[in-house]
Write a structure and sequence with these properties.
The protein is an all-alpha fold and about 160 residues long. It has seven helices and no strands.
């Protein structure tokens, strides 16, 4: 662990920030994984969360905007009275049960924010609501995992 922390420190703040943002932008790593790794690697928790969250929010927002455009393209001349598929019906039931906030906050336990937000945008949910709730979720998950990493590092260094 000392080797990792020494090399991360030697990389400098700009490189650290770029790697955290890149990690935050990658599905399944996201703000929580990048924040956790950043803290373990010796980056201050506030900085680790900040840059991991920025990367995650940028990638999620780009995908929401793209999914909205794709949906608009494919539904332009479509008959909206058509019966939805079984999978679409199941998604609508979950969405009606939990709403944008619930899917955004709890969805990251199952799927990356980029996927859940794109699914909601593809289903026609307003992009503003998606982005708002996903940003809250991304920050909360990042802070939670940075806190867990900070507690874990404190325990490990206390034992050594």
């Amino acid at each position: 662990m000392d080797w990792l922390q020494e090399n991360v420190e030697a990389a400098g703040g700009t490189v650290q920030a770029l790697f955290l943002m890149l990690g935050g932008a990658i599905p399944f790593i996201e703000s929580y994984g990048a924040s956790f790794v950043g803290v373990v690697a010796g980056i201050h928790p506030v900085m680790a969360v900040l840059f991991a969250v920025i990367g995650n929010i940028i990638s999620m927002t780009v995908l929401v905007l793209c999914a909205e455009q794709v949906r608009r393209l494919f539904t332009r001349n479509r008959d909206e009275r058509k019966e939805p598929s079984k999978r679409q019906q199941r998604f609508v039931k979950m969405f009606e049960k939990y709403g944008v906030a619930g899917v955004s906050l709890l969805g990251q336990a199952v799927l990356p924010s980029q996927i859940t937000s794109s699914m909601m945008a593809g289903a026609g949910v307003a992009k503003g609501k998606i982005i708002f709730w996903q940003c809250i979720s991304i920050v909360l998950w990042g802070v939670l995992f940075a806190g867990l990493a900070t507690a874990g590092v404190s325990v490990i260094t206390g034992i050594s």
